[in-house]
């Protein structure tokens, strides 16, 4: 019955302690913001993303899975709800159970009637959602150290690498690297212990590349932003802040994650990347940012757990951290609900008033249009926007409404800086 389905919570304004984007993902039916949500953590009896990371890495910090099979089963349970009527397993009547679509193995239904009614919508995305289901499992290899795999040095200048095709042309044949991962013990454990049949090797190779592309998409987007603002990493060290950094960037982060910038700008004067956000997960990158000049020809990563304007007040203004040459934001999602825009408002005004070069990415054209409108209302000077040539190739499912077309990380971008220029002249009035 409809009354058995829990009501969706209202958006809420963030506090200093809250991880305010937890409302995104599962509960944001219409916002197209995918990602690990609070409802998933609740289903796993975990209080934060740090516990989730510790569990998938096999580290016992008060909570763990009994074995791989238990881990994969519980992770799959967090995606179980009827796509037709939104019922969760605990709201099914006696004798009912959720059944998967046999084609994509990625959506569930409580009855054949729900599946039949949903098919006109589901058939439009069924093939894509099959890839989503594979990637969701293969992504576990990023916690085992198999992903991302090493890349080769660049034989072209940064200006010559304009898209994925240009980047791949420098890497040569990726098959040997991918085949090593395919034949490894972690891949074997993955498909031995989850509830899906192992895809064929070609499907798995493509999945490995899609997940690799999502990782690289963030790094190459930063490099592209450096070029778009004509910043010169050879003239002086650069400080880059990642505002709104979340569990997506920090949960498995390593100190070498942005080393692709060394290949992009060989011989640079030093690049510091500071991840700042309330969802930053504890790990090796959570260390104090640099106050000034960084190590030459190296990328230094640090992190701060908190809102960006707090970071600015507590560290930048007190000269405990260097002012940024560039601020990048991946999928801020401030269009999604009132709580998110209220959380981002002080940061957006800070970026505007301090005239800081800023480069934000979005999941979709819809998010791009909404974000452009918000920035315009804040009188922020938008320099340009459009499709990102280094879009992640991994499709992302909107969790609460899986029959929406999947979106892609960093698929759109907005480049902005400072205050909108005043109109040079009023529209000329006709002569009398």
Automatic annotation (TrEMBL):
<dbReference type="Pfam" id="PF20179">
    <property type="entry name" value="MSS51_C"/>
</dbReference>
<dbReference type="InterPro" id="IPR002893">
    <property type="entry name" value="Znf_MYND"/>
</dbReference>
<dbReference type="InterPro" id="IPR052839">
    <property type="entry name" value="Mito_gene_expr_regulator"/>
</dbReference>
<dbReference type="InterPro" id="IPR046824">
    <property type="entry name" value="Mss51-like_C"/>
</dbReference>
<dbReference type="GO" id="GO:0008270">
    <property type="term" value="F:zinc ion binding"/>
</dbReference>
<keyword id="KW-0863">Zinc-finger</keyword>
<protein>
    <recommendedName>
        <fullName>MYND-type domain-containing protein</fullName>
    </recommendedName>
</protein>
<keyword id="KW-0862">Zinc</keyword>
<feature type="domain" description="MYND-type">
    <location>
        <begin position="82"/>
        <end position="126"/>
    </location>
</feature>
<keyword id="KW-0479">Metal-binding</keyword>
<dbReference type="Pfam" id="PF01753">
    <property type="entry name" value="zf-MYND"/>
</dbReference>
